[in-house]
Amino acid sequence: MKNENAITVSELTKTFGTFTAVNAISFEVKKGEIFGFLGANGAGKTTAMKMLIGILKPSSGQATVAGFDVHTESEAIKRNIGYMSQKFALYDDLTVRENITFFGGIYGLSRKRIQEKSKQLIEDLGLGAVGKSLVGSLPLGWKQKLAFSVAMLHDPQIVFLDEPTGGVDPITRRQFWEMIYKAAHAGTTLFVTTHYMDEAEYCNRVSIMVNGKIEALDTPKNLKQHFEAATMNDVFLKLARG
């Protein structure tokens, strides 16, 4: 990446017919930052993310991800990012090891590198006893942590996580965020969408989308001070009420 920003967005817009899902949003994400992209369901978070990861063409505006243009270099973006979708991204009918091998191949890793990464990943997650088990048989929390680790398999510059803790218990959510901290400490940029407002407290900075627009962007501490709020949920409620 050529500058200190992992992601730069200017007036990015997506329309579907007469409906504007994402309305001229602008922001920057620094290298190594945990950037929270918050908003209620339907606020436009996932649509914005899909434009940034190169699978949805913007209607207008500009953006670069890992130094590559979203309009003209979407394939280069895909090679330099990791992505964990809102719905569980791995294959239930493959084993843990088979999933790692499959995605390692997609990411272009050598057979030797896949073997090394597979061993390390399984050890780190404590999945040695279930390495040959079908992923579909694992508890949701384990599935989510495995999906995140697989998204990191090729050492991407930026990892996009779309509602990564949806449906998991509070303990697993905390464990998941510990994995995010570890990745950020190693220099990876994390872009996280969530509708759990308490998770904003774990981010370096957060933006809050309301009806397709970014209505606030700052550190959690500064946002709470600005809106005279005790929690990020209070901040969001004030914004949502206008």
From TrEMBL:
Superkingdom of origin organism: Bacteria
Matches recorded under Pfam families: ABC_tran
GO molecular function terms noted in the UniProt entry: ATP binding
SUPFAM superfamilies registered for this protein in UniProt: P-loop containing nucleoside triphosphate hydrolases
UniProtKB keywords: ATP-binding, Nucleotide-binding
Span of domain ABC transporter: 7-236
PANTHER family: ABC TRANSPORTER G FAMILY MEMBER 20 ISOFORM X1, ATP-BINDING CASSETTE, SUB-FAMILY H, MEMBER 1
Protein name listed in UniProt: ABC transporter ATP-binding protein
Organism: Robiginitalea marina
Lineage: Bacteria, Pseudomonadati, Bacteroidota, Flavobacteriia, Flavobacteriales
